[in-house]
Amino acid sequence: MPKFRLSASFCFLKSFRFLFALLILLHPAPLFAAQETDYPSELIRQSIEKKLSEKRYWHLLLHYRETLFGGHESEAGEARFFLAPDGKTDPQAELEATLTQFFSGQPVGTSGQPAQCAFIARYRWLKSELGFDPERLPEQTCDRFDAWYSTLNPQSITLIFPSAYMNNPSSMFGHTLLRIDQKDQPERILDYTINYAATVTTDNGVLFAVLGIFGGFNGNFSTIPYYLQVQKYSNLESRDIWEYQLNLTEAQIERMLMHAWELGNTYFTYYFFNKNCSFQLLPLLEVADPDLHLAESFQYWAIPADTVRKIAGQPGLVKEIRYRPSRSTQIRQKQALLSPEETALISEITRDVAFLESGRFNKLPLERRALILDVAYDYTHYQSASDERESQTLKKKQRLLLERRSRLKVQSEAVAFVPSTLPPENGHETARAGVGSGWREGEPFERLTIRPAYHDLLDDETGYLPRAQIELLNTEFRYYHHAGRFELHRISFANIFSLFPFDPLFKKPSWRVSAAIEPLPSSRCDYCRHFELNAGTGTAFETGLLHREVFYFFVQAEADYGRIYERNYRAGAGGTVGVLTDGRSRWKAHLFATYLSYPLGERSHDLKMSLHQRYRLQKNLAVRVDLNRRQVLNQKRYEEEGILTLHFYF
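Above: the chain's sequence. Below: its structure in token form.
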């Protein structure tokens, strides 16, 4: 009997299982739908209880910023970056929509993947906060992300800072990007980078500036091989590069790269002064390590040197700093080992390789010929990278130079390349305020100046591009005692100066451009002002009479507008001669004179002379003396003034 009962029970169970399976086949949707509906609701309820939508990390992943009147708005511009219709402005709605979408295999975002893969950083974070049940919410395979991450094979992250490049408006302040250092990769040049840049839609220089300043471009993240970045910044634009290896853990690197993957689904509005290449890297680092608070320091402007200074100032974040000299820096420092006669030989050789057979070259010692050939080869390599039209001719010269160099059987002398200045974080802060006093035609006044950015010729060059000036919105206020009047004396919208001393190999012009509302001495009115636009180009020579002096000469054109003129304007041309000297101690001086003649509009002449001196007290504190003398409009007499100012950098 027991045996029979067991068999009967077994048969009954088999029949029951058959009926249950049949029921599932006939009515599958309600059973699974009930499970799916319950679990998303349960996860949403838990997220509300834990207030996950208010967490800083959720706001970092969605790039939410507090709005002026309360609430939040994401800086991401692509609608498909959000899974809720109002996800751009509602963190809770976006979190609920994201949790719900994790249960679906439907492609989302611009990348067209399931939500778990398109927004993998969101998925991993919410999973860690809510502890997803893998039975009720199975984890999907993300083959595309896995292949991308495997290709990157990350071991560490390095912040890259190519120094300033004066011949490109978008690069005058420098640039920053992140390099992904691969495991088991001895050549860092083969690594990949994460770069943020504007998608430029115009070749017009004026339109480019306007759109860049006022948010007319979209900015996108991209993953680019490092050798292409070095080719662009170091080889073509002759920019030295500073590399800051960051001390991030494996988990932090993974979080950062997962978020970088997500950012392929969106764009950001690009603003040249604040939401630029440097600023947009900061939230990536904050996602890697939420204890970092970097972006909040740059509300109004983000200059690359400032962001580097901020990152370098985080305790323990920077592990190591390396210097990568540009190709032109390498050539110049090798060239410095040559005599002027040997440098002249390089010019002859690169002009015509047949000069290698001349007696002037062959009578030199073997080691000197080897060094000359090394520099000549490097120089033609530099030329071929920057001049595509002559690349084939130059490559032929390179082969001949290599062939001749191989015959000498002498090993090249190792050259230790030395940076022309310290890393950017060692320089002064980029904003500057000044308080001072002075006299103008015997009348005393007090003075207040504000300059948001960035550096002028008299500022300490430590950490900055030598002999270069970029000043934006330099504003001066004055209070005159006798008149009892407080006035806005001057606004310099832009004042850019680039002195490039003559070099027999690198023949680059020096140049300047400025736009300002300036005071103008005149008998027609007191404290007259006009709008002044000035541009010029010329040449410069560096000497060592005292320590390091740069003499320069510019040919300039200028257009002025103001009611002070008979026809409201004048336009003309002239020139400037000057000398900039950098003493061995903390002292620096700039002496110059400008003469301009205006044949258009109101016919007039203008002669002005200035001596400016600066003495550095500390890195971010300096005292300055300015002596100015300028011709009064259409008169032979001159107006003179002297100013003493204390400058604070912040």
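Residues 1-36 have pLDDT under 50 and may be disordered.
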